[in-house]
TrEMBL record:
Matching Pfam families: EFG_C
CDD domains assigned: eEF2_C_snRNP
GO biological process: mRNA splicing, via spliceosome
InterPro entries: EFG_V-like, U5-116kDa_C
Domain of life: Eukaryota
CC terms in the record's Gene Ontology section: cytosol; U2-type catalytic step 2 spliceosome; U4/U6 x U5 tri-snRNP complex
Protein name (database record): Elongation factor EFG domain-containing protein
Organism: Allacma fusca
Lineage, uppermost ranks: Eukaryota, Metazoa, Ecdysozoa, Arthropoda, Hexapoda
Length: 150
């Protein structure tokens, strides 16, 4: 059986800022798992255009953070661009999520799943058996398929 994966939406972000604010823009993007794809000066002006992808979950408050770090000199435009697989296994029970601590990128899928299930009032563990009806469980038992995820 294949292991499940989570996907998250990514936004395309275009930031226009003065040349002396470019390093601050890079700092804000890096803190939000942003990936810069292009930066170039705007011809005939002192401005730079920075194009990047940012996960939607990390984009909330991005513009405020950007303006704070650039003293209001940068502005941005963001629009949905694509879906991307979240790194890590959401069912990996060996990962312990500690509150108020940033997780390594390989633990993000588990963190997203646990936090979503807590917010919805569900148990943290997902039992795969509850997704099968009785005839399917009997058929899988005949085929000697292991249903307990490690």
């Amino acid at each position: 059986m294949a292991t499940p994966r989570l996907m998250e939406p990514y936004l395309f972000v275009e930031v226009v800022a003065p040349a002396d604010c470019v390093s601050a823009v890079y700092t804000v993007l890096a803190r939000r798992r942003g990936h810069v794809t292009q930066d170039a000066p705007v011809p005939g002006s002192p401005l730079y255009t920075i194009k990047a992808f940012v996960p939607a979950i990390d984009s909330f408050g991005f513009e405020t953070d950007l303006r704070t770090h650039t003293q209001g000199q940068a502005f941005c435009l963001s629009v949905f661009h694509h879906w991307q697989i979240v790194p890590g296994d959401p069912l990996d029970k060996s990962i312990v999520i500690k509150p108020l601590e940033p997780q390594p990128s390989t633990h993000l899928a588990r963190e997203f799943m646990i936090k979503t299930r807590r917010r919805k009032g569900l148990s943290e563990d997902v039992a795969i058996n509850k997704f099968f009806d009785d005839p399917m469980l009997l058929e899988l038992a005949k085929q000697d398929v292991m249903l307990n995820y490690p």
